[in-house]
Amino acid sequence: MKSDTIGIVGGGQLARMLAMAAARLNFRIIILEPNPSCPAAQVANKHLVANYDDLDALDEFSRLCKIVTYEFENIPIQATHYLTTRLPVYPSPEALKISQDRLFEKCFFRNCGINTAHFYEINSQSDIEKKLADFTGKGIFKTRRMGYDGKGQYLYHSDESLEKIYSSLGNNPLIFEEFVPFKCEISIIAARSVNNLITYYDPIENTHDQGILKTSKVPANINSTTITAAYKAVEKILIALNYIGVLCVEFFITDDERLIANEMAPRVHNSGHWTEAACVVSQFEQHIRSISNLPLGKTSRHSDCIMHNIIGNEINTATEWLKHDSAFIHLYGKSEALPRRKMGHITQIFSLPKKF
Q1: Which of 37, 61, 118, 318 is deepest in the core (most CB within 10 A)?
Q2: Which residues are in the ATP-grasp domain (predicted)?
Q3: Domain check: are 74 and 33 in the same one?
Q4: Rounded to two decimals, what is the model's pTM?
Q5: Binding residue per annotation — 257?
């Protein structure tokens, strides 16, 4: 069984969609996930119910799998290092380590020659008061670790008081990023194979609501020069990390078409869910192909599209989309519709080019 089995650390909707794509290519999937009723458990061949840093579970996981990947960043880096002593882990723990810390990530982008917002390292309340004493304008305080979907953030304007900001974010190490005026946010999803081949999906234009991705539109409203520059920036990251698998990099685009790197995700990404409906080879299949040394697939799209996330109680009316001929719907099998929780997505496809 080991020769055809891929292990996934994590059991959420991304692991679910990876498992579904892997099954089409005749792979078996084992997930390591502490939640016994997670979305991926419904489609995986085997579910090891254990914490991510449970050494006995990691040993069993590595015995059963040929290769291992992961579906999200917030897993113990020590667990991935432990697994690499036993079998290949893609993407590498180095990519994971950088993506887990916003300060490391920004410094890494700068070292790759990629523009970022101006930022400050913050390790105390006194750091805030000293480094921002003369700051004017807007910015965002972010926890360096464990932040996603708008969590661990504080939007700041210079006419506010600086008092108690550090404690309001849990007294955790922070990064402060100066606000970047931008006309749109995009993401680039790319894949790199073990043979160093790189493919890119079309740039995606994203909108957010309270820090959570709401829609992803393809094509993005950017010019060809900006697209080329974005692809080159992502290529620098892939090569610097000797990266294997699918990577997503998010950028701000300024009014004068400058690229400002925001963050990266060393995995398949929410903004790439549209590839399930509008491409022959989805980001999920491309990731499986990448890490298992299969030929990379063609990434061109056959339709323009908009992907809509289904958030919280929106799940109650999601099936109304089934009345639309152009709608592709994917529900994640989550048992409870909590506020701000991603319950599924809908991709509305347009067979002919269309302006939005």
Answers
A1: 61
A2: 106-292
A3: yes
A4: 0.94
A5: no
